[in-house]
Amino acid sequence: MSSSNEQRSYAEALFNVCKQSDPDALCLRLAALLQVCAQPDTRAMAAILLRRLLTRDDSFVWPRLNVSTHSSIKSVPLNQIQVETAQSLSKKLCDTVSELASSILPENGWPELFPFMFQCVSSDSPRLQEALELLIELGGRLLTWWVLCCRLRRQNHLRKEFFTWQLNL
């Protein structure tokens, strides 16, 4: 995040070398920055760079990553959405999740995403509800359909609990 063009060019060249030579290490280090770095600007840049790697274009590295990296890359952003307090960073995390979801959900490549979204639907936490809205906004029709189904399921469950409670009176 340097203002020097020379430093930025060097950093981008290094990023591209790492992307080609060891995408697993690059993705895992970016994910680690999301978890442990105290500086919000650095976490934001890590989320942006991770999203770039997970965007289905010429730089898409997902198919080249090993299974353990897949697991980490799917869990870290979901965990960080739950604890991140900076709204702008939460949005960047949701962007990353949405980008990856658009690539791997059609092949059922992220079964953990829907339970996370159900947790958001069921939560009283404004942070999780806002994250869910961002994911829906970014994720399009598939996520919207899923959330509607969950909300109906939750309403039906609440109705069932209510009627069971009424019968027990």
TrEMBL record:
Keyword vocabulary terms for this entry: Cytoplasm, Nucleus, Protein transport, Repeat, Transport
Domain IPO4/5-like TPR repeats, residue spans: 86-131
Record field: transmembrane: none
Transit peptide listed as a keyword: no
Cellular compartments annotated: Cytoplasm; Nucleus
CC per GO annotation: cytoplasm
Lineage top rank: taxon: Eukaryota
Any single biological process term in GO: protein import into nucleus
Predominant cellular place of this UniProt entry's protein: cytoplasm
PANTHER family documented for this protein: IMPORTIN BETA (PTHR10527)
Name of protein: IPO4/5-like TPR repeats domain-containing protein
